[in-house]
User: What shape does this take?
Amino acid sequence: MNSLCFPSHPIQSLHRSTPSLRPHFPSHRTHFNNSSLTHPPITPKTTPSLRSLCSSSQSNETSPISVLDFEEFVDKDWSFLESDALNALERRNRIIAAGEVGEGSRVLVSIGSEDFVDGLVGCCGLGFLLVVHDSLFVLAGIKERHDGVKCWQGEIVYVPDKWAPFDAVFLWFLPALPFELDRIIGVLARICASGARVVISHPQGREVLNQQRKDNPEVVVSDLPDKVTLEKVAANNSFVLTEYIDEKGFYLAVLKFCKSVE
Assistant: This one.
């Protein structure tokens, strides 16, 4: 597995088998190229909360680190998103089909599981695939399996325009995004191509989501939008709701971008 390199401290690699020691990084933008995943140097100006992570008995910058506080250096536990039930093949393919992706499509995935990305990579010859996630560990796993996939650590509302436009956007786990729906769709209106489809999904529906929110309150921070809310938000941002399914064991909403892009 590719290693995660942190130039400011001596941790050389971290393995996914120890979730309690998963590192947490601020949600500023980090871009990964090729087969290595690197994090920019940590400075007090950009990440003042990390200054307490380590201390030294000497003032020399090259002196060894004597204390590493892992209590503040912990990633959220996203492992429940990799469950077999949540990634059932039939439902996964149903969600991918809703995006109408094909050969040469430019696709953005936000908070996607590794299995979902596997499905996208294997379905057709995509022209470009960008995966956006808060977790460096999840991105490392995806990059290990698919080196050609672009991985970007941060929030979807801060994705740079340089990779636009996108033909399809999959908000695979929208309830993990700590932003108002109108803001998210407004950002997507800026980076979507005309006719692009935004797919909002939950493979197991609201009932399972409610239990996931109880079990993982640090990850699941919102609910799935209802039809009225989606129609209002879509209309405000030049989208139209073309499909809406809210069944006991499955949720799917598709928005189509109708504005011409110059």
Q: What stands out?
A: Confidence is low (pLDDT under 50) at residues 1-73. Residues 238 and 259 are 6 Å apart (CA to CA). The two ends are 42 Å apart (CA to CA). Helices lie at 89-98, 114-123, 136-145, 181-191, 205-215, 227-236.
